Amino acid sequence: MARGTRTNLATLAGAVGDNSPVDRPTPPATPTSAPLSELAPNPRNPRDDLGDLNDLVSITGTQLQPALVVTRDAYLRLYPEDEAEIGLARWVVINGCRRLAAAANFGRPSLDIVVKDEVAKDRVTLLAAAVIENVGRRDFDVIEEAKAIELLISECGTVDKAAMKLAKSKGWISQRRSLLQLTPELQTALRNGELAIRTARSLAQVPPEDQVEAWNTERTRHHSAESDSGSTDDGPGPAERVPVTAAKVTRTFRRLDADPAVLAEALVEYLDGDGLRTLLAVLTQRT
Question: What pLDDT was estimated at residue 139?
Answer without folding.
Answer: 61
